[in-house]
Design brief:
The complex is a heterodimer of chains A (181) and B (110).
Chain A (H helix, E strand, L loop, with lengths): L3 H12 L3 H23 L2 H18 L10 H20 L3 H4 L1 H7 L13 H10 L4 H13 L3 H8 L3 H19 L2
Helix pairs in contact in A: 1-2, 2-3, 2-4, 3-4, 7-10, 8-10, 9-10
Chain B lengths: L1 H14 L4 H13 L1 H14 L14 H12 L17 H11 L9
Helix pairs in contact in B: 1-3, 2-3
The chains are: A mainly alpha (181), B mainly alpha (110).
Amino acid sequence: MLMQAELVWLIAAVAKGDQAAFERLYGATKAKLYGVLLRILGRPELAEEVMQETYLKVWKMADKFDPTIASPITWMVAMARNRAIDIVRKRGEVSIEENPDALSVAAETPPPLARREMTEELKRLLSCLGKLDPEKQRIVLLAYYSGWSRDQLAQKLDIPVNTIKTWLRRSLLEIRECMGH
Amino acid sequence: MYDDDLDALAAEYVLGTLSADERTQAEALLVIDPGFVEIVRQWERRLGELNVMVEAVEPPPDVWEKIKAEIGGGAVPGDQVRLAPVEQIAPEASAGAGAALKPKTSQCPR
């Protein structure tokens, strides 16, 4: 992965229509985006479709990118996740039953990273997450990595959906307080 | 309290735990309420770093070939990867795009 400053520079070049810069941006970010999409969508052919959509959006919206608001990879991953979650929600909650492969792929959160591989922002977020009960931490992480709805979390973890709703809300507001603004 | 409700909606929108209907509501708010846009951005900043821990997976090479063809030749009318402008998050538009993305078979070639 390129340094963040190089990615910012590449997006600025892409905003001017520089196709070579776009290819380098794709090369530097494709595996991260595809990894995120595969976890949520489960099916490679769907993940590939969303890859195309996301990068075309990056191409068209590069001039809207503001490096003071987001890091390049966070901006791109947010776009990709949003689209992927729209697709799985509209496909309906039933399909998770029909697609057990997707379930097993996404059933666990990723293994912990060595601290030296973490950004400062991630360390801060994880220390705030660490203040939540282990069960609530797991729900937040599973939701992020697997793209599960409250109903899916309830079903998978065998916890009433109202409890999931209360826990999520409380956990997220606690994270907000802990991280400040 | 109202602020916390809005904040929780934004947080769950970013986290991805909302139902389809609630997502549609949040997307409508994103179009009309710049304050909500800012709250969503804050949550993307807070939670977005979690992507660092997701394992990278190399996509098949033809993904880039398709993207390159799109940007080189311009979007072809009727092409399923054609993008709607962000302003148009009408439910029927997204439903149409979603339908176009549905896999042709139920088999999972992994």
